[in-house]
Fold this sequence. Notes:
Blueprint: E1 3-7, H1 11-23, E2 27-31, H2 34-44, E3 48-52, H3 60-70, E4 75-79, H4 84-92, E5 97-100, H5 105-121, E6 128-130, E7 133-136, E8 141-144, E9 147-149, H6 153-163, E10 170-171, H7 172-180, H8 188-201, E11 212-215, E12 219-222
Parallel strand pairs: 1-2, 1-3, 3-4, 4-5
Antiparallel strand pairs: 6-7, 7-8, 8-9, 10-12, 11-12
Amino acid sequence: MSRLLVVEDDPGIRSALIHALSDHGHAVESAPNAMQGLQQAIANDPELVVLDLGLPDLDGVELLRMLRAVSDTPVIVATARDDEEVVVRALDAGADDYVIKPFSAVTLDARIRAVLRRAATNGPATDLTVGELHLDIRGRTAELAGQALELSPREFDLLAYLMARPGEVVTKRELLAEVWRVSYGGGEKTVDVHLSWLRRKLGESAQEPRYLHTVRGVGVKLMEP
Ligand code: CA
């Protein structure tokens, strides 16, 4: 059983979800709009949030950003069909997975269990150190030469994935699949953008790499300088 928060403005969909997810053994609370959803997510610390992106008071992706600023609670977004651009924005903003409306409770429950499983076993529970780079996986803090690095949740996950594989070439497709959880093509620009942000925070560039080395046409590898 998991404690879930469902943020959904449509009363019919909301009560159907509460009913179905309760039937699957979850303890479900709900909120009818973004601001109440944010309040409940912070106050009650649910294990996972199911977030409708089409909310009356605030864009769901904006809510996700606000939530991500204060919490790592896994989030599955629900969105209307043919909305790939919105899905990509939501994943970039830190969503863990998505479902396309209309979806079945069985599918949503399977996604919920998969996301919670990943959250429980996400990467090694130990710390990672490469050169002067140090990640505290449980505390989700990063340091370079003893100085704290301010990383977004996605940048942290990206760095952790690469640091767990020092010297290994990792493709952008693999990063999309393992860090962004996106299986369709495209989106490699997203990886490039996050890598360039990460480089800036590490005080290096693609032209003068220290830790993050581009392997042209293949991907990227992290190495001790
Ligand atoms: Ca809606």
